[in-house]
Amino acid sequence: MKGAPAKLDTIRDHMRDIDRTLLRENLKLTFEKRAKKHLRALQMVEELRRAGKKLRQKSDGR
Amino acid sequence: MAVDLEQIIPPLVRARVDFILIGGMAAILHGSARVTFDVDVVYSRTDQNIERLAPALAPHGPHLRGAPRDLPFSWDAKTIRNGLNFTLATNLGDVDLFGEVAGGETYSDLLPHSFEVEAFGVRFKCIDLPTLIRIKEAADRPKDREAVTELRVLLEESEEKQG
C-alpha cells in the first residue's frame, strides 16, 4: 500500500506529457468515425512496417 | 493484417453472441489516439452463448495465434467450454476472447459497467472508461501502464466536457 500514492503521482506526472489536442479532436468524432480513423492509422503503420522490412531485406542482400 | 472492428463486430452481434468490447479497441472508442492491433472481447460463458460464439467465428478460420500451424486445434463449442481465454488469429485479424479478465471479472461482473454503442449498423456493448482503466491497472503490463495514463486524461476530458 505504501507504493500506491507514489504510483499515482507518477501517473499524474506522465499525464502532463499527453497531447490533449489529439484526444479532444477524437472526442468530437462519433464512435464509428473514431474506429475508422484508427483503422487508417493502423493501415499506415502496417505499410511502414512492410517498407521497413523490404529495406532491411535489401540491405541484408548487399 | 489491420484488424477492422467493422468486420468483426457485426457477425458477433448478428449471431446474438453476448460480449463486451474491452481492451485497446474499447480505448479507441473512448477517444484514445494509440494504435492497437487486436480486438479484445469478454464473452458470456453460458452454454447457449458458447453455442452461438463458436459458429459465429468459425467461417473466419480462427486458430491459436503464435502456435505451430500443425498443432491440432478445432474451433468448436467443446474447445471453448474446455478453455477460458483464447488468443486467436482469424482471417479478419487478431481476436482475443476472454472468459475472465485480469482481476478475475467475468462477462456478468462487467455487464453493469458497459454501455451500448451504435456503429457499423449494429448495437453492441463496450466497457465504460473507469472500468477499462481498472482492468488495465489490474493487468499492469508496461503497455497497460502507458495506456492507463492516456485513459485517465480521457476520463478527465470527458468529465470536464460533461461539466
Give a structural overview.
Chain A is mostly helical and 62 residues long. Chain A is built from three helices and no strands. Chain A has helices at 3-15, 20-27, 31-61. The radius of gyration of chain A is 19 Å and the shape is flat. The model of chain A has no long low-confidence stretch (mean pLDDT 85). With 163 residues, chain B is of the alpha/beta class. Chain B has a single domain, classed as Beta Polymerase, domain 2, CATH 3.30.460. Chain B has seven helices and seven strands; from the N terminus they run αβαβαβαββαββαα. Chain B has a seven-stranded mixed sheet. The mean pLDDT of chain B is 93. Classes of the chains: A mainly alpha (62), B alpha/beta (163). The A-B interface holds A 11, 14-15, 18-20, 22-24, 26-27, 30-32, 34-36, 38-39, 41-43, 45-46 and B 1-6, 25, 28-29, 31-33, 35-37, 117-120, 126, 148-150, 152-154, 156-158, 161.
Strand content of chain B: 15-25%
- Calculate Rg of chain B over CA atoms: 16 Å
Q: Give the overall shape of chain A, derived from the CA principal axes.
A: flat
- Report the total helices of chain B: 7
Q: What are the segments of chain B in which pLDDT stays under 50 over at least 5 consecutive residues?
A: none
Helix content of chain B: 40-55%
Task: Predict the CATH topology of chain B.
Answer: Beta Polymerase, domain 2
- Number of E-type strands of chain B: 7
State the helicity of chain A in percent bands: over 70%
Largest sheet of chain B: 7 strands, mixed
Report the end-to-end length of chain B measured between terminal Cα atoms: 40 Å
CATH architecture of chain B: 2-Layer Sandwich
Main sheet specs of chain A: none
**Largest chain interface and its two residue counts?**
A-B, 24 and 30 residues
Specify the overall morphology of chain B: globular
SS summary, helix count of chain A: 3
Number of separate structural domains of chain A: 1
- Summed up, the domain count of chain B is 1
Order of helices and strands of chain A: HHH
